[in-house]
Give the backbone structure.
Amino acid sequence: MRVGESLDVRVTVELGNLTPEDIAVELVLGHTRGTTDLEAPAVLVLDPIAGQKNGVRTFEGQHKITRSGSFSYGIRIRARSSGDLDLSTRDLVLWG
């Protein structure tokens, strides 16, 4: 990718009993430093798009590349707030 280009992200998530308001689906992107650390990571919250079928929802977003170099990224899914969620769901964080 080149500076000025956009990275389009689309993730499909099986929500089960959760709603899109219960979770945050995020793109986490940063320069690589070593094998596991990201330098100055950016977090982009992906937006749910219309339509849900059988507990499956698609989230999408766009990140404009502003710096050159080697990047690593991941998709993170986490609970937005505890609300009425049980403890096991509240502690949910998934990386892909």
